[in-house]
Amino acid sequence: MAGYIPCTKNDKEEMLNAIGIKSTAELFSHIPREVMLENGLDLPSGMSQLEVLKLMENIAGENKVFKSIFRGAGAYNHYIPSVVKYITAKEEFVTAYTPYQAEVSQGLLQSIFEFQTMICELTGMDVANASVYDGATACAEAIMMCVEKGKRKTIVSETVNSDWLRVIETYCEPLGIEVIIAKSKEGGTDQEALAQLIDEATGSILIQQPNFYGVIEDACKLGDIAHNCGAKFIMSVNPIAAAILKTPAECGADIAVGEGQPMGIPLSFGGPYIGFMAASQQMLRRLPGRIVGETLDINGKRAYVLTLQAREQHIRREKASSSICSNQALCALTVATYLGAMGPNGLTNVAENSMAKASYLADEICKIPGFKLEFKKPFFHEFVTSISIDSNVILGALEKHGILGGLPIDVEGKQCILWCATEMNSEEDIDQMVGILREVAK
């Protein structure tokens, strides 16, 4: 099997010609060359296991590990209880995939069922699926759920994570779905501008709550605008913030999506992560992936089954509206274990703690000359400051002290930084970073 190559050279050339590129290397052209391995690891031949291990440790030692993190922008540093890693490391659970002889795998089905149930409780929605790849693909899949005859346009708020927006555009372009960007105003979605963009061809409106700038959107009003014009309302929510904010269901959302990484999944250099999707009963049969249900077996004992696979690709692929046919089972188990360990009170505690730390951080930073809060409160655990000092100087000074500062961003031509604080940032950590910023400002 090691020598089996499914695609011939001619097959590959034909595929490259079809998409208009000359080599497979061009598929990765967006990745900076300095982080790519040009010739693999280039290990000398005949090395012993001990020698290879030492070499790999030396290579890994070049990674920068920060003792304090004040950056979010879609991936967040939260505390993970030890029980989460302990349970998910058991060999019975170590699978990233879904069972194909489903009813034989009762334990795995139950873990997925518990995950779906908790997502429904968190979002207030009627039904959740067995997860998708990440928050960005969850947004794109939600938009495709809303495509109908004569409704092939979606409106996405400018305040949605720009990386997610690029994924949405990648999904929508080949399907002929028009993506319109609704402008922002004072850090939130401009409601008047949004209302003017909607017409009878609009299938959905997507917002992020809290949005990319950390601002808490007036989701209820945005939902009303969507529904008054016959469009579906999609909310991409931070699951930790969902513990203290109005649920998507309370805001009138038809579909709730988001990135599940904050719920027990480590940062891990960007993945693997997990996207969650929940919907109203009306949208049930449009959900991608799988839905696990609870029932009774022939002996009257509790059992779990794959209840619905409405949009799977097993048979009529050409008519399918989604290519999602697997799930992030191990990540879903991690999320369910985290939520089970934290409980409702624990999750609320994390959210309130993060919000309080971010508020304190913002107040302290904005006492420093050259730093100004760009958008007014309320915000959750992220906020934006405009800066009069070059961001490279600021972040470089912090890095020397083992601190990962915020994300440099551009807001209407102004140089800004998006900061983040979670329960992991102690008051001492914040004071230390503010002290460094104060020295830089001098």
General description of the model:
- It contains eleven helices and 18 strands.
- With 442 residues, it is of the alpha/beta class.
- It has two domains: 68-79 and 343-441, Aspartate Aminotransferase, domain 1; 82-339, 3-Layer(aba) Sandwich (Aspartate Aminotransferase, domain 2), CATH 3.40.640.
- A seven-stranded mixed β-sheet has the order 3-11-10-9-8-4-5, sandwiched between helices. The chain has a four-stranded antiparallel β-sheet with strand order 14-15-18-17, with helices on one face.
- Helix 9 (329-365) packs across helix 11 (427-441).
- It is globular.
Annotated CATH topology of the largest domain: Aspartate Aminotransferase, domain 2
Strand content: 15-25%
Name of the CATH homologous superfamily of the largest domain? Type I PLP-dependent aspartate aminotransferase-like (Major domain)
Named CATH architecture of the largest domain:
3-Layer(aba) Sandwich
Please tell me the total number of domains.
2
Spatial shape: globular
**What is the helix content?**
25-40%
Class by SSE composition: alpha/beta
Record the strand order, biggest sheet: 3-11-10-9-8-4-5
At the first level of CATH, what is the class of the largest domain? Alpha Beta
SSE succession: HEHEHHEHEHEEEHEHEEEEEHEEHEEEH
| N→C terminal distance | 64 Å
Rg from C-alpha positions? 23 Å
